[in-house]
TrEMBL record:
UniProt keyword Metal-binding, yes or no: no
SUPFAM superfamilies, per the entry: PLP-dependent transferases, Winged helix' DNA-binding domain
PROSITE patterns: HTH_GNTR
Residues in HTH gntR-type domain copies: 9-77
Superkingdom of this protein's organism: Bacteria
Organism for this UniProt entry: Microbacterium pullorum
Keyword Plastid: no
Name this protein carries in UniProt: Aminotransferase class I/II-fold pyridoxal phosphate-dependent enzyme
Family according to the record: In the C-terminal section; belongs to the class-I pyridoxal-phosphate-dependent aminotransferase family.
Signal peptide: none
Amino acid sequence: MRVDEAITGASAAEIAESVRDLIDSGRLSPGDLLPSVRALADRLGVNRNTVVAAYRLLGQAGLVVTLGRAGTRVTAPGPLPTEGYAQNSVLRDVGDGNPDPALIPDLSRALAALAGRPVLYGEPVVDPDLERWAHDWVSPDVADPRAVRITVTGGAVDAMERLLAQALTRDDAVALEDPCFLSSIRTVRLGGYRPVAVPVDAEGMTVDGLKAALEDGVRAVICTPRAQNPTGVSLTARRAEQLRDVLAGHPHVLVIIDDHSAMLTRQPYHSIVGPSHRRWALVRSVSKSLGPDMCLAITASDPDTADRLAMRLSPGSTWVSHLLQRLTVALVTDPEVLAGIDRAGEHYLARNRAFAERLTAHGVACTAGDGLSLWVDVGVPARAVTEKLMRRGWLARPGDEFVLADQSAAHRLRLTVHTLSDADAESLAADIAAAVRATATR
């Protein structure tokens, strides 16, 4: 049987799964052309819209790409964009999204005091002191602190991967902000889930976007309440209330709040989880404030979600090292370290605002949000701008890497500038403005 004749199914999901099986078995290879929508619909005896929907599902999963009149082809597997420094580059990296190494607390004093008895199999997986501190940290931000359970994972991304795995099956839909944090896109796509884009505006995740995603059947929602990456937007109190009202009609949809910058942000926390919501998790990482190598996150959740999350931990890492847990407690209860984290948060905000003013003065309007980076609308194709910046010695991130559906992000750059000196910041702002002008006149 020819490969195109091996595609079966009566619904979009069945057709998509049939094509996926052919790809997994090697019968369809990267670059292979799928049947046209009309030809496949006629052969299967289904409506053409059904085939269109099937190809859309495959496209959202990254398995095929639609090329207009050139048809729909199987994609070659490739690495998804990730956060961090670019490897093997001699260029000055201003798109890495890292915290300033000089502002990461010195661990040596705390490490010296960590010696204690060994932890053995079968003991509680969460350090009691860390659990008490975590409860105190999240209690003001949850509806019923007495019902909250604390789980510790190897960072926020680890928490999200395990939370989705315990709640979803392959091809289930997940609502993601658009533009979106690279690690969230990667986690959803590698997990085999279907991302559903929810636009983000100046107040955060949009109400109409969330409504549409819920109507599309999403089983989980991932929302960043503060310092959204890449936009720097934080939820307003009004928007959070509106989103709570929408979610009130869907109490069993898993809501994951990725509050990754909780220790650094200057913005207040506004919850989208109402008191009657049944399945939720508030994830807070220490990586932005204590350093990326501190792979630890606190997940506060309802008891059922906590039990499911613990089951997802048990076959793998089982628990996060108690040495790391104790180190975290030592740092976050040290007044000197906390004062340093506050100074770091002020530094990031001040440097971002100063660069936004420089860029605006050079004719590229920019407003600083919250977080470690800036989201800059250059008004022209950003990839062309990044190519010109490379010739001037800079490596920047184009906005389309963060996009699910929002095509306006193709005119955006995400910049990390807080480690630049004033002279370097001025040079970068001038080079961006020159690159924008050169791109606009092509």
